Amino acid sequence: ATGGQYGEEGNFLQSGNYRITDFQAAVLLSQCARLDRQNEVREQNARYLDTLLSTCPGIRPMRTDERETRKTYFNYTFMYDEKELRIPVDTFRNALAEEVGFEVSPSYQPLDDCQLYRPLTKRRHAISKSYLKEIDPSRFDIPVCRDVYENTSVTFHHKNLLGTKTDMEIIADSCMKIAAHIH
After folding, report:
1. In the chain, what percentage of residues exceed pLDDT 70?
2. Within its chain, how far is the Cα of 167 from the centroid?
3. CA–CA distance, 180 with 178 (Å, rounded to integer)
4. Helix, strand, or coil (residue 94)
5. Helices 89-100 and 165-180, interaxial angle, to 10°?
6. Sheet holding 75-80: strands in order across?
7. CB 172, CB 56: distance < 8 Å
8. DSSP 149
9. Is the model's pLDDT at 45 over the cut of 90?
10. CA gap 147, 10 in Å, rounded
11. CA R_g for the chain
């Protein structure tokens, strides 16, 4: 769900309040006991996958700043170089998804055109025309974000980092296989 609804003309209206119930909160709270261990597994597997992918042509793992002491993941992303592998990034993403058996996608949409960020559809922002103009995300030109989204990012969900080292090797081997068989 995108957290909103489409109006009569097909325009997306960003939603507001989707509070969870007491029961949902209780279920989620009981899961918190597992979170630290899951974050540890995700981080270890992501670092291992970074190491494996760093040897694959046309792929560059995300850089980690030495000041970072711990990383958590919602998505795992690496950068793809279409010039080096000579196949479109969409073709690479689709081939990788077929090889590994889970969804592979681009990074998040740039905020100037993101389905999840539509502040102009919220009535509470209709303070004045000048305010609406200031918060309009379409006023920004963000070519680097657009390039990453459209041409270089390869992303998959964090749940795929909860596997084993062998699972990370399968992901890296799949990338190597695609690179070796670009024809």
Report:
1. 86
2. 19
3. 5
4. helix
5. 140
6. 59-61, 75-80, 153-157
7. yes
8. I
9. yes
10. 27
11. 20
Question: What pLDDT band is residue 137 in, cutting at 50, 70 and 90?
Answer: confident
Contact indicator for 47, 172 with CB cutoff of 8 Å = no
H runs (alpha helix) in the chain:
22-53, 82-85, 89-100, 129-135, 143-147, 165-180
Predicted pLDDT of residue 49 = 98
Map residue 14 onto helix, strand or coil: strand
Question: Of 30 and 5, which is predicted with more confidence?
Answer: 30
Q: Please name the residues in contact with 68: beta carbons below 8 A apart, sequence gap of 6 or more.
A: none
**What's the average model confidence in pLDDT over 86-110?**
95
The gap from C-alpha 16 to its chain's centroid, in whole angstroms, comes to 22
Return the H-helix or E-strand segment holding 78.
strand 75-80
Least confident stretch, 19-23, 94-98, 115-119? 115-119
Taking alpha carbons only, the member of 116, 89, 81 closest to residue 105 is: 89
